[in-house]
Design brief:
The structure holds two protein chains of two kinds. Chain A is an all-alpha fold. Chain A has ten helices and no strands. The chains are: A mainly alpha, B alpha/beta.
Chain lengths: ~250, ~260
């Protein structure tokens, strides 16, 4: 009964995507839509497979992934550290919060020209864009994660004689972990947007550059195959983060 | 004769106070800070089960938080005569979600730096006592409300403190579960010979559990009256209600509470 209901839900969830793709396929075959700009899904899939086999997509995907991974680590590690510190220590919060808030409202992509001037076009600039964007999302989520740990648990720890160090390690850090992971996943979504946007404008390789170049030469099936690849990359990365969360937050399983 | 008197004194030692509260006044800080407790005087005899009942907001929880050291007294004092840190069951769901039932019970021992083997043995024994032997590795969200409160109670007993402060530990439980846990709590109390100061708003619960019941006034909290509970032990919720003295005891506590509101 239970498996049947789960199966039913899966089927119901597939109705819309499959239906829409089917409609797109039919519309393209019957030329209801301009197939130059909107090639049939079957054409896109074949092109994706082709670019996978000729190595173009794998090359560009790994290029993008490398920039994402380095930039994400470079932004997330100090973001989590300083965010938790600011959430726990009022002095750190007072020091960082005003500047962080001011910088947070600047749309990160708007800084791309400045970053290119300062660092010139190259991987350091692209990685910096990712790191800079990730940092703020992670910083604020870690800060509020630490601040919002249930006061009852802090009181309980104090009542059982925990000193400050033990309160931090036995209550504040584990209490903040789930919200930190939510922040990391949101930040990864932002990082994907930023790296693709940066590669559109300031790169010859990476999936963003691949999509943009295909668009410029009117190779729309290839452009779509780049979108498919970047989507798959996003799903893989998010699943990896979800797996890390599953491992680090056993009490939420 | 003299020897016997001395012996009588020695055996009468439980009459010493485990908790002494003298003219305790607590005003919360800040402009127009609320006066929570107003010159409270209360003695809790060592080894006794002492209940405090009162309307919500009367400062019952504040009193326990002061005794455990979470908030300071404005004037007067509240002290644990036994000298060692009392143990505590906070109000509400206080199990730490990131610890298993066993780790939660052992939390106080961990904070005291007890070795892992000891923590595990003590926690396992208490969980078994509380009927949770099969749930040691479960996380709080995998337990029912009643199980979580048992874990909180187990955590309070695990540190082997002579004085336990409990803040409405059973108030969120359904009736049947509450009666069960009351029984387990009384067993643990009798077995360990500890002193319990127990905050509740439930007259029947106070009469089932306690040797003495102190009724607090509406805020600012003061002690209106301390009543000796006239029932023999061991007790249960059901037996207490069948006692001839029950209606009068209930009525008296009810009147004191109602006179307030």
């Amino acid at each position: 009964m239970d498996t049947r209901r789960t199966l039913w839900k899966v089927i119901l969830g597939l109705v819309l995507p499959v239906g829409l793709i089917g409609l797109w396929q039919v519309a393209a075959e019957r030329h209801w839509i301009d197939t130059l700009f909107y090639p049939a899904p079957s054409v896109v899939l074949l092109r994706t497979w082709g670019h996978f086999l000729d190595g173009a997509l794998t090359f560009h995907a790994f290029t993008t992934l490398r920039r994402l991974a380095i930039g994400f680590a470079a932004g997330a590690i100090p973001g989590v550290g300083l965010g938790l510190a600011a959430g726990i220590l009022p002095a750190v919060r007072a020091l960082l919060y005003p500047l962080a808030t001011a910088l947070y409202v600047v749309p990160r992509i708007a800084l791309l020209p400045l970053v290119l001037v300062a660092m010139s076009v190259g991987d350091p600039a692209r990685i910096f864009m990712v790191a800079f964007s990730v940092f703020f999302v992670v910083f604020f989520s870690a800060l509020s994660a630490a601040e919002q740990v249930d006061a009852t648990h802090v009181d309980t720890a104090r009542a059982f004689g925990a000193n400050y160090d033990r309160i931090v390690r036995s209550v504040l850090l584990p209490g903040a972990t789930p919200a930190v992971f939510s922040g990391l996943r949101v930040a990864m979504g932002v990082a994907l947007i930023i790296i693709v946007g940066t590669e559109f404008l300031a790169s010859n390789d990476g999936l963003g550059a691949f999509i943009w170049r295909s668009y410029q030469i009117f190779d729309f099936p290839s452009m779509y195959s780049g979108v498919v690849a970047v989507t798959i990359l996003g799903v893989i990365i998010d699943s990896t983060l979800a797996a890390a969360e599953w491992a680090c937050v056993p009490w939420r399983r | 004769m003299t020897t016997m008197t001395t012996t009588a004194f020695a055996t009468a030692q439980p009459l010493a106070n485990a908790v002494e509260i003298r003219d305790l006044t607590i005003r919360y800080p800040g402009r127009g800070g609320v006066l929570a407790l107003d010159h409270v005087n209360l003695d809790v005899q060592a080894g006794s089960f002492h209940a405090i009942i009162g309307p919500s907001g009367c400062g019952k929880s504040t009193l326990l938080k002061m005794l455990i050291g979470l908030i300071p007294a404005t004037s007067g004092s509240g002290s644990i005569a036994v000298g060692r840190r009392p143990s505590y069951v906070p109000q509400g769901n206080s199990c730490m979600p990131w610890l298993t039932a066993e780790q939660n019970v052992a939390y106080g021992l961990a904070m005291q730096g007890a070795p892992r083997a000891e923590r595990r043995a003590v926690a396992r024994a208490l969980l078994a006592k509380l009927g949770l032997a099969d749930f040691a590795r479960r996380y709080p969200h995998q337990l029912s409300e009643g199980m979580r409160q048992r874990v909180s109670i187990g955590r309070a007993f695990a540190v082997n403190s002579p004085v336990l402060l409990m803040d409405e530990p059973l108030s969120a439980l359904d009736f049947q579960t509450k009666v069960h846990v009351q029984g387990e709590l009384l067993e643990l109390w009798a077995e360990r010979g500890v002193t319990v100061l127990y905050v509740t708003h439930d007259i029947d619960e106070a009469l089932t559990l306690a040797d003495r019941v102190s009724v607090f006034s509406r805020r600012p909290g003061r002690v209106l009256e301390t009543m000796e509970v006239p029932f023999a032990r061991p007790r249960s919720y059901r037996e207490v209600r069948n006692q001839p003295a029950y209606p009068a005891a209930f009525a008296r506590l009810f009147e004191l509470l109602e006179g307030i509101t």
